[in-house]
Amino acid sequence: MPSFPGSPRLFKGAIVLLDSVSFVPKGMVKLQYNPETLRRTLQVQRSGTEGGDRLEALRLTAPPIETIQLEAEIDATDQLEAKNPVTAVSGIHPQLAALETIIYPKSSKIQENNMLAQSGNLEIVPMEADLSVFVWSINRVLPVRLTEFSITEEAFDTLLNPIRAKVSLGMQVLSTNDLIFDHKASSLFRFHHQKKEALAKLNLGLNALGAIASLL
Q1: What is the pTM of this model?
Q2: Is residue 65 part of a domain?
Q3: Quick check: is 5 in a domain?
Q4: Residues 188-207: b if buried by 16+ CB within 10 A, e if exposed
Q5: In the sheet where 131-135 sits, what is the strand order?
Q6: How far apart are CA 159 and CA 85, in angstroms?
Q7: How many domains in the chain?
């Protein structure tokens, strides 16, 4: 559906794929439509247990474990109306595949590991995936690991290709507690952490101004 003339350009959420070592971009999966809601859960990481040492009650051991859940919609209506040749043949399979392959090891790596196993190499290092970075505005650029993924295909073309689907994504933010400190993804999280602290200071400033105004 074309946007209304003169309407502001809408920033689209996306998952950017980077090489986990060099940070060279490997691809990007842009959300066709921004979800209406995004659920975030933060699990506090603190020392001690309930009823334990009172000296430990306020000690934080690491950044909270943050998980993000969202539901995205993928629809081929606009592409079909525009007679997109790829959509006409494959429906929304390419968009779904772009998301799904984030959690698949590379087929070439599977074949390589099989050859190593057949040659008698008993120790095979687990395959490392590309780094997923969840982008949701300039204030939220986060290294993440996909933890949940479900697809509900709701409509199909005459060849049984899906042409409309809802995708539920669950992600865990990778913090400095999950990564080697000097890893580039750890640096990305630290930047996000510092950005959050800067935004919090802006809020404190607004509250202070409000408190002063209430006394006048």
Answers
A1: 0.81
A2: yes
A3: no
A4: bbeebeeeeeeeeeeeeeee
A5: 25-30, 14-18, 131-135, 141-156, 162-173, 65-75, 38-43
A6: 14
A7: 1
* 142 in Cβ contact with 134 (< 8 Å): yes
- Map residue 105 onto helix, strand or coil: coil
Domain containing 180: what range? 14-215
| Alpha carbon distance 169, 71 (integer Å) | 6
β-pairing verdict for 14-18 and 162-173 = unpaired
| Amino acid in the structure at residue 157 | D
150 in a domain, yes or no? Answer: yes
| pLDDT one-digit tens code per residue, 145-193 | 999 999 999 999 999 999 999 999 999 999 999 998 889 899 999 999 9
Q: What is the C-alpha separation between 162 and 157, in angstroms, rounded? A: 7
Between CA 60 and CA 193 the distance in angstroms is 15
Residue type, 213: A
**Residue whose pair of structure tokens reads 């590309």 in the numeric block:** 130
Helix (H) or strand (E) holding 44: none
